[in-house]
Design brief:
- By secondary structure, the protein is α/β, with parallel strands linked by helices.
- Helix content is 37%, strand content 20%.
- Bound molecules: S-adenosylmethionine and iron/sulfur cluster.
- Iron/sulfur cluster binds next to loops.
- The site of S-adenosylmethionine (SAM) has 16 residues, from strand 5 and strand 6.
Length: 403
């Protein structure tokens, strides 16, 4: 979940990167993320950088978004220069990208193709709120070159979430997506919402699996400051999420999903085989390079991270003036990059090579094995791979590994 961005240092108006940041760019995985910051209504638990129509100010509208995104794509291409790599993955996230007509998403994808080029077999994902797609729009997205649909299902129990959703609709959309020719269909679920019972969660998992997805993301509910959910918990109208219930739900998900042939490959993500994993997220988790287009989007190239101004009006003003939409940036030290690699790799089923750790970290890895938090066999083969119990305590394990 995106928290408030770090303070960072000012980002140059021309978007230029520090010397050497583009070194070896063409040899590493490169993805493009497009953040579409619009939602019909705001769900009570969500603090993503997204706006309803009434919250959009001057210069920003759904209709003008594609033109601005395309302007930033051209800008990105100029900054990265002649060595700019082709995109191996493209991810339209939100917000609700499917509030834009498929033709506009197609236009943005074509602009990425003409500026950067798409690698053969490029993965192109669109996040979709099931209330905003239908048989026709899914077919249009497939025809436009989208290869993967990620549907926000969240829960099959209507009383569980403060969200406009019709139970049954996500599964129906997943079936339409399959019929439209999508090989890759993913569903997002959230567990541990106050008021959710074990049976509700099981019902959500069963409903998700009945739709035949090849990928499921299941997230523990985070109570984000400033949301309606946080206010209701503060007022005592709802209990705070319970850690034990969260752990039970996670294990129930892992059991049920594994029995259905979906194996975990990242703590919150399960896939039906290597080809069904989300390659775009693997770029993030593998500390690859990506350019994030759109309001509030984050980017990372060669150890420099930057993030765009959050409000669509401010973004529109920057991009229309030909300036970088970056609000600030930070240049990571070698040590910070190393810590981040350990943090991300340890969450993956492939695990973190012991060679990434310093001597204190390697001692911590041995202890994690002794405590049943890391797999002994993988450790003998030179990696830290979390056990099921280790996955429940991943944050603590990572803290120990990184000192
Ligand atoms: C930005 S949303 C995009 C999906 C789309 N807007 C929808 O809701 O259908 C990506 C995912 O983040 C997850 N998410 C959002 N708020 C969350 C929270 N407070 N705790 C855990 N997961 C959350 C949801 O599973 C959601 O599908
Ligand atoms: S539709 Fe998705 S992005 Fe929009 S408010 Fe709801 S969870 Fe957040």
């Amino acid at each position: 979940m995106p928290g408030p961005p770090p303070a960072g240092e000012p980002a140059p108006r021309d978007g230029s990167l520090p010397a050497g940041a583009d070194h070896g760019l063409g040899r590493q995985a490169f993805g493009i993320y497009a953040h579409v910051p619009f939602c019909q209504t705001r769900c009570g638990y969500c603090d993503f950088n997204t706006y309803t129509a009434a919250e959009l100010g001057g210069g920003a509208s759904r209709a003008s978004y594609a033109g601005q995104a395309i302007a930033e794509i051209g800008f990105a291409r100029r900054v990265l220069g002649p060595d700019a790599p082709r995109a191996g993955t493209v991810f339209f996230g939100g917000g609700t990208p499917t509030l834009l007509p498929p033709a506009q998403l197609a236009q943005i994808l074509r602009a990425i193709d003409s500026e950067f080029g798409l690698e053969p077999g490029c993965e192109v994902t669109v996040e979709a709120n099931p209330e905003t797609v239908d048989e026709r729009s899914l077919a249009a997205l497939r025809a436009a070159g989208v290869t993967r649909i990620s549907l926000g299902m969240q829960s099959a129990a209507p009383h569980v979430l403060d969200r406009v959703h019709r139970p049954g609709r996500p599964a129906q959309c997943a079936r339409w997506a399959r019929a439209a020719g999508f090989e890759h269909v993913s569903l997002d679920l959230i567990y541990g919402t106050p008021g959710e019972s074990d049976a509700d969660w099981r019902g959500s998992l069963d409903a998700a699996l009945s739709a035949g997805p090849d990928h499921i993301s299941a997230y523990a509910l985070i109570v984000e400051d400033g949301t309606r959910l946080a206010a209701r918990i503060r007022r005592g109208e709802l209990p705070a999420p319970d850690d034990d219930a969260m752990a039970d739900r996670y294990l129930a998900a892992d059991d049920l999903l594994a029995a259905a042939g979906l194996r975990w490959y990242e703590i919150s993500n399960w896939a039906a085989g290597a080809g069904a994993r989300c390659r775009h997220n693997l770029v993030y988790w593998g500390s690859g390079n990506w350019w994030g287009i759109g309001p509030g989007a984050h980017s990372h190239v060669g150890g420099t991270r930057w993030w765009n101004v959050r409000h669509p009006s401010a973004y529109a003003a920057r991009v229309s003036a030909g300036d970088s939409p970056a609000q600030a940036r930070e240049i990571l030290t070698e040590r910070e990059r190393g810590t981040e690699r350990i943090l991300l790799l340890t969450r993956l089923a492939e695990g973190c090579p012991l060679t990434e750790l310093d001597p204190a970290g390697r001692d911590a890895a041995r202890l994690a094995v002794a405590d049943g938090l890391a797999e002994p066999e993988a450790h003998r083969a030179g990696r830290v791979v979390l056990t099921r119990r280790g996955r429940l305590l991943a944050d603590a394990v990572v803290r120990d590994l990184t000192g």
